[in-house]
């Protein structure tokens, strides 16, 4: 059994939830999203996040706008749509239920 593969699958399973959570307070561009995830020790590479952001946008959960930058090319800022906010609220409830169940099982004394 490859523990690294299992850990990677666990991270992928919560990445969408984490990205939507990052954007719940304010719009952000990809580098800001990546920095927030990395600061939380959730290691993600650009090759993973760009397709995911595109999929979330195509699903109607995110919108984006271009903004000029003083230090380079324009930046694409992502934000939650109303549908994205509703979806995130549902994920929060699901996460709480799942987290409580996992904690209950993993913290049982044998």
Overview of the structural elements:
The chain has one domain: Arc Repressor Mutant, subunit A (Orthogonal Bundle), CATH 1.10.10.10. Helices cover 62% and strands 17% of the residues. The protein is built from 4 helices and 3 strands; from the N terminus they run αβααββα. It has helices at residues 3-22, 30-39, 46-58, 82-106; strands at residues 28-29, 62-69, 72-80. A hairpin with a 2-residue loop joins strand 2 (62-69) and strand 3 (72-80). The protein is globular. The chain starts with a helix and ends with a helix. Pfam families: PadR. This is Transcriptional regulator, PadR family.
SSE map:
Layout: H1 3-22, E1 28-29, H2 30-39, H3 46-58, E2 62-69, E3 72-80, H4 82-106
Antiparallel strand pairs: 1-3, 2-3
Helix content: 55-70%
CATH level 4 superfamily: Winged helix-like DNA-binding domain superfamily/Winged helix DNA-binding domain
Tell me the series of helices and strands, N- to C-terminal: HEHHEEH
Number of domains: 1
Could you give the order of strands across the largest sheet?
1-3-2
Beta-strand content bin: 15-25%
Backbone shape: globular
CATH level-two architecture: Orthogonal Bundle
Oligomer designation = single chain
How far do the termini sit from each other?
A: 24 Å
Give the number of helices: 4
CA radius of gyration? 16 Å
Report the mean per-residue pLDDT as an integer: 92
Provide tags for this entry.
WH-like_DNA-bd_sf; Transcriptional regulator, PadR family; 110 residues; single chain; alpha+beta; 4 helices; Tscrpt_reg_PadR_N; Arc Repressor Mutant, subunit A; 3 strands
């Amino acid at each position: 059994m490859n523990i690294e593969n299992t850990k990677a699958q666990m991270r992928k399973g919560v990445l969408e939830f984490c990205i939507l959570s990052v954007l719940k307070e304010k719009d952000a561009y990809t580098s800001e999203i990546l920095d927030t995830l990395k600061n939380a020790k959730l290691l993600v590479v650009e090759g993973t996040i760009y397709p995911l952001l595109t999929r979330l946008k195509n699903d109607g959960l995110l919108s984006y706008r271009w903004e000029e930058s003083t230090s380079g090319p324009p930046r694409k800022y992502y934000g939650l749509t109303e549908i994205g906010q509703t979806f995130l609220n549902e994920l929060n409830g699901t996460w709480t239920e799942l987290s409580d169940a996992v904690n209950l099982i993993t913290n049982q004394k044998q």
